[in-house]
Amino acid sequence: MDDDILTTLKILIIGESGVGKSSLLLRFTDDLFDPQLSATIGVDFKVKTLNVEGNKTKLAIWDTAGQERFRTLTPSYYRGAQGAILVYDVSSRETFAKLDNWLNELETFANKPDIVKMLVANKIDKPNREVTKEEGLKFARKHSMLFIEASAKTKEGVEIAFEELVEKILQTPGLWENRSTGLNVTNTSSPNQNGNCGYC
Amino acid sequence: MSVNKPLETEDAEDHEIFDINDFTTASDWERFVVQIEELINEWKLNSNISDNLIDGDRDINFENGEWQHKTETLQFAEEISFTLTYYYLTKKNENDKNNLNNSKKDQVKNISIDFDSSTNQSNNSQLEADENSVNLVNLPPKSMADLLNKTNDFQNVTSSQTITPSIAYWYGLCRFLVISPTRNNSFIDTESRANVILSSISIAINNTGCLIPIFVQVNSINRDMYLGLCEGSALKTHFQIVHFNYTPPQYSFLPGLLEIFKSKLGNHLTNSSFLISVSVRFTYLIQEGTFLDSQQMNMKASLDKSFQDLDLVDDRIDEIYPDIKNLSFGSIQDCVDSIYLSCIWSNLSEDIIVDSESYSDLNPQHSNDWCITLNNLLDKCEYQLTSSLYKYLDELKRTISVSQLIGPTGLSINSNMDPQVEELKNKSLQKLTSSSSAARRLDKMYFVGSNIVEKATSRMKALNTSENQLPIDKGFLDFIMDYLFPDAKLRQSKETSKQNKNQIKDDLNSEKFLKKISLLKSSSFSNDGLLNKFVICLNLLNRIGQTAAIAQLWQEFILELRYRYESAIIIPGLDNDPKKQNQDSSLIPPDLSRCLLHQKIQMLNCCIKKKQERELIEKESAKKLDNEKQKNNSDEDEFFDCEDEQPILPFEGRLKKFGDLTLLNKPSEYIYVPITQESTPMTEDMLEQHASVLVNLGSSDDASLLRAKIQSASLLSDMQAFKAANPECVLEDFVRWYSPRDWVAVEEKQIDPETNEEKIIKKYELSHRMKIPGNMWVDVWNNAKPVPVRRQKRLFDDTKEAEKIFEWLNSLSIGQIVEQTLPILFYSAIYTCYEEVFKLDLNFLADPIIDLLIEKTIKITRNNETKKYHDLVNYVKSIEQIVSLMKSINAKFMNKKARISSDEEPEVKQFVKKLLKHSLDQESCELKIENGAHGTIGKLLSRLCVRNKITHKSKYNRMQSNEYKSIKNSIDSIDDQDDNDEIEEMENYTNLLLPYDKPFKREYILRSSVSRPAPYSRQSPQRMYCLINNLEFRLAGAFTEDTMFF
């Protein structure tokens, strides 16, 4: 079954505590919403195989704790991630305001230079919205991220968020490696890498 | 083609009716001729039309064209085979677009040719033939015209860097065919054999109407002798050649050569009836042979010196050992082998120049046509960095362990050791232990002066009885260790050398350099870090002292680390970022962007730091304890068993107040943030291990719970600390500090009993998820006892971690040591390369290679692709070649003696760079010098060469004083500014440059248009090329006769 899998991708979910990171993940992997979900300690981890445009991709999704104190621990797991989902809660301006910190964290600890980032505005089902869609869009544009509004509770936008992210990663040469052939994509995509060392 | 089809069938019918062609008895020779004809037809060289092919390309010359050739095999009588090669000049394609256009044009042309040839074949009438012959008379074949064309004189190299075939060079031909014997075949050694081939050619030419000269190679191949034939327009040119290994004295100058030429033209001619034009090229050897340039000589000397017993001067202690600070760089030999200067005089009239043994009008100073030829040995040179990298990579395959190689901690060596080890040891011993007496003397000096930190080395070595059997002698080892750990000892010489280094640094501190280096992720690319220094030393030791030296230094290095750990002394030079270095208070976790070895040593530093802190606290608490003891002798155990007792102090381990918040149950008490344990620093491999443990649990719900449990240690620690700092606290208090977003406001409507108005009151409570019974947070909270950090179980067990690291370090085999150090070595190599390139301003050439190298290195080091390191060395080699060549060229053209003025400098620099670029493209480059002797470069060369002339003479002739004077006068006449000092200086100048008063090689081209063989014949082109040097004498003549009027 593993044979036809194109590649395995590592994806992070980060953001302030209580914005619904684990709920988004649970909705995506098990299509469930569990109001009883307890606050994540350290990091958690889930796997799902996704079919994007005929390519089977195995996703290893790392869910992290949002609490300040865990931030000494969780960034160690950022290494090797090809994609990152930054989550904020539309009903809490504070979680939106802290996004800058999370981006910084990502810059510092993720070691792949062109990691694909996606901004997810969660909890759009809630009545007391504090952050508008336009603000979210603006932020995403400023930091060249993908943007989507979603609700883990109503299922809206969750699956498409992950799919878009994976598609984008697969389109980025050099970010992932083809498992079946063991060849690095960079070699085929940029010819001058293979070239002999010319002088001029 | 369709036009001549009916004609062909007609022909065929004719044959059928009238005669039968019987080829059954055709001889080998006839078959050979047919083969030549077939090829001529196939290549479309089969009539005068082929000459038109080049019409559109009339303007192609040797300078702007590009040589192409195609080859086919010919068979003569089964067993003898020849090759027929067609050489032709094509327009150099500047870019793809041009290329496309050209090919389109070619297609168009081909169509027209087909049409032409068909009409030609079909028109057999007498009239047409006459017209044709008239045309032929008017237009000699282009190849014959080329003989008189002067634009291609002495053009050795075309602009596209293809080398002109020698036949083309001699005769100025743009297209020709050559029949050569294949290599394994016997060559055409007799005249009769040559004549057989020549007559075949003649037949083929007449049968096909080919206008291109065909040559046959005669005599042994390496003599480059060809006879040839060209026919067309009722003219016939014979190409003939003379080749000797010596120069007949009567023909060694122009008059003799003219005599030969005239005699070949015919006796019927009187001197006045025709004019011979002469073109001449003299080539002077201005540098001969290989030599070491002065800098490299010094390097070599210092290497040799270090192993000799020398009297040492105190302040020059650094100089007796090889340079351990930098990777050695550059070629060992001079990569420029020889330099030639060629001067051309074209189109002179034979009667106006005098050229004889005693006097020649041909003075280089009067030629405006100069070119310089540089022969390089780039491919043959040995490059220090490249070869040391290769040698280091070779060690990868050694699975032998350090202790096997040199015995545990350097103690006596087991005699039953395996032979490989013995062999290695002996080799390295011979190389490195020869300087024991010098070393002993050094030892004395090393140990004078104050020791700031006592070194592990000296302690270990004191016990060591078999010291002499180790590859690195003690003095050198100490020297290296002092360099690696400068805080261990302060020596004056060190400081001075440091200053020197700083100076160099300042020079390089220009913005451009910094910018580039920062591009390289500055932290990893440096030669300053402890590990960079260490690996550079390892590489050096491996280069000069074989494998055992690596083992010994490695062992010594671990000993030093062990000593530092035990004495709680921080290891210096691990973090380049000065900001980080100043933050002594907190742990610096291993930098995961560095290689594993670096991370491990950083981790060790974390352990050392932790140990320092622990020891400090222990000391303080011991002091406290003492104080307490003095006060109250009975309370001895209070700090150690307090878990079971009621704490005497109400709180412990408070860090600071947490805002203005107070405890929910006891509003009089503020909430305090506790002192918490720092998270465990982790190296890459630990992290991977940790992550894989988490991953292997799977992704079920149970697994998630288990993961949370595994990771709850730090949560528990924090809760315990919080409880200790805030007695009587509840989970709500903790959550307010730890996870404020789980402390949520709930709005409640209340009806005010007095006004009956609805009021909204905000109440805070734990979030829903924290209230779920049995959730992890509650569980952990309930299990947490109030324990301050300093009495908690250590989350980061520095003792255990340090031991693990030492175990790892000690377990590495030689190959693994090499593997672990490769990333550092290559980053240092890149740094060195870049530094060298930058110093010489060669970025324009080397940057693409360096960028590629960096890109590849990053990829390889990140993916641990050990096998691919060999590929990287090739890039390093390219850079080393560029830099070495540039250094060599600079030493020759831009030295002090050249006295380049500021006006000239830009032009000279440009010239030097051009020369470099050309030399890199090919082994022997020829470069035109603008304005010859009168240009800037020409003047520079004149200055350099005149000096060399003097130097040479002064060195080898041991001049008499009066001779000296005369020479001095000659200098003064050329260059008034020379003074006595400079002449003396020149005598010591070591460059072995030869004088250029006698040309190394002389070439003449004699040309004329003459009526041959009879006075009433038409005028036809005649040419003779002559080459004279001390190895050979060659005449290549092309003599044309009229075959219509004779």
TrEMBL record, chain A:
The lineage of its organism: Eukaryota, Metazoa, Spiralia, Gnathifera, Rotifera. It catalyses: GTP + H2O = GDP + phosphate + H(+). One of its GO terms (molecular function) is GTP binding. Its EC number is 3.6.5.2. Keywords: GTP-binding, Hydrolase, Lipoprotein, Nucleotide-binding, Prenylation, Protein transport, Transport. It comes from Brachionus calyciflorus. This is small monomeric GTPase. Belongs to the small GTPase superfamily. Rab family. The keyword Transcription regulation does not apply. Residues 181-200 are annotated as: Disordered. GO terms for biological process: protein transport.
UniProtKB/TrEMBL annotation, chain B:
Residues 822-1046 form the Rab3GAP catalytic subunit C-terminal domain. Residues 652-809 form the Rab3GAP catalytic subunit conserved domain. Its main location: cytoplasm. It is found in: Cytoplasm; Endoplasmic reticulum; Golgi apparatus, cis-Golgi network. InterPro entries: Rab3GAP1, Rab3GAP1_C, Rab3GAP1_conserved. Keywords: Cytoplasm, Endoplasmic reticulum, Golgi apparatus, GTPase activation. One of its GO terms (molecular function) is GTPase activator activity. One of its GO terms (cellular component) is Golgi apparatus. PANTHER family: RAB3 GTPASE-ACTIVATING PROTEIN CATALYTIC SUBUNIT. Belongs to the Rab3-GAP catalytic subunit family. This is Rab3 GTPase-activating protein catalytic subunit.
